Amino acid sequence: MAGMVVIYKQPADVNAFDKHYFGTHIPLAKKIPGLRKYEVSRGPITTVAGPSDIYLIGVLHFDDLDAMKKGMASPEGKAAGADRRLYAPDESGIQMFLFDSREV
Amino acid sequence: MAGMVVIYKQPADVNAFDKHYFGTHIPLAKKIPGLRKYEVSRGPITTVAGPSDIYLIGVLHFDDLDAMKKGMASPEGKAAGADRRLYAPDESGIQMFLFDSREV
Fold it and tell me: What sequence ranges are listed for the domain EthD (chains A, B) (predicted)?
């Protein structure tokens, strides 16, 4: 499998973020060809030490990195990427990691 | 489900990190009661913009946050946590996020 982990810091306007993320972004992203599973954090995100400054984590799963790259390069993938820049335009508020993974 | 995402920056000594992580830490962590799945990134971790300074990402899955907390508070959970401080003692080199999640 391959995963894309997207980590969003606390947004300035939580209601606007939620409305866009759940109402527009998820439906757009779910159209990306090759997407196998889309998980979203629910409730507070903590660290072992306590609360974090992270608001939401999304994890998108594809069969492998090649499928992920093809999906992201498709019109649907580009639309989802462009949409992300609308509700989370500040790159310093986001971390996004792409990787192949295996179960151990 | 609940996930624990652990993100490790590039270690100073990759060989020592790998030896400890794969040889000692994974076997210890797999004994944590309630652990349902343990995924580890394979190969380079990139961002949409290109290479990252991240070396490895581990994702541990539990049924829910309560099961995760109980697992981490068990002797096996404490042993895995203590072991992590041996191979990755610098807290600034790690991000660790705990959260409930749902499929969308």
Answer: 9-84
Q: Look at chain B and report how many structural domains it folds into.
A: 1
* pLDDT, tens digit, 9 for 90 and up, residues B29-70: 999 999 999 999 999 999 888 889 999 999 999 999 999 999
pLDDT in the model for residue A48: 80
Residue B94's domain comprises: 2-100
Instruction: Please check whether residue B45 is in contact with residue B54, taking contact to mean a CB–CB distance below 8 angstroms.
Output: yes
CB contact under 8 A, A42 and B102: yes
Query: By the CB < 8 Å criterion, does A5 face chain B?
Result: yes
Which of B38, B52, B100 minimises the CB distance to A43? B100
Which CATH number do you get for residue B79? Answer: 3.30.70.100
Helix/strand/coil for A102: strand
Q: How large is the ipTM?
A: 0.91
pTM: 0.94
Alpha-helix residue ranges (DSSP H) falling in chain B: 14-20, 26-29, 65-73, 75-87
Tell if the CB–CB gap between B39 and A3 is shorter than 8 Å: yes
CB contact under 8 A, A1 and B39: yes
